[in-house]
Amino acid sequence: MIKPRKTCGSTGHALDDRVMVRTSDESSTLALGRRLGRLLRGWDVVCLYGDLGSGKTTLTRGLAQGLGSRSRVASPTFGLARVYRAKPWLIYHLDLYRVAPDQTRDIGLEEFVSDPKGICVVEWPEVGESYYPKDRLDVRLEHCRNGRTLKFKPRGPRGREILSGLGRS
Predict the structure, then answer these.
(1) Cα 145 to Cα 1: distance, rounded to the nearest angstrom
(2) What is the C-alpha to C-alpha distance for residues 3 and 16, in angstroms, rounded to an integer?
């Protein structure tokens, strides 16, 4: 259960309809990702914002585990996309760090986010903003003293449903 507190070390500080969670190490980021993954289903899109090394791929690894995937999750930086199986879903793990805004159509971003059996997790999502559904979950990861801060912002009713479930898990 996420419990509100108002410090950098918070484990669930409410910011309007947003929630801020602090993880102290890699294992707690993985655990949070597992909790998040158990709440996802087809057509869900999770956009991960943050600097290099902020924990985006670690959160995605936990998310995939929470969905039941046994795949080895690694950053798709050079391949742009990795697909992991998590029956009955496919997890599309995208990294748009090296994609220019005029290249988003060429990589098939529309197909990834519109697959009813797909869950799309996007690192460095800024260049593809126009392709994402308005109803999604945005997560901003930041380094914080002694850990990481994750700021969850739901975009639409499904995003709020996921965030609410995360608060109850």
Answers:
(1) 22
(2) 15
Q: Which residue has the tokens 């199986």?
A: 85
Instruction: Indicate if the alpha-carbon torsion angle 9, 144, 121, 65 is positive or negative.
Output: negative
Distance CA 108, CA 94 (A): 11
**CA 123 – CA 52 distance, rounded (Å):** 10
With a pLDDT cut of 90, the percent of the chain lying above it is 64
Q: How far apart are CA 48 and CA 55, in angstroms?
A: 9
Q: What confidence tens digit (pLDDT) does each residue in 11-36 have?
A: 454 445 778 999 999 999 999 999 99
Global pTM value? 0.88
Q: How far apart are CA 19 and CA 10, in angstroms?
A: 10
- Check: CB of residue 40 under 8 Å from CB of residue 119: yes
DSSP 76: -
pLDDT tens by residue, 43-67: 999 999 999 989 999 999 999 999 9
Using CA atoms, how far apart are residues 7 and 104, in angstroms rounded to an integer? 38
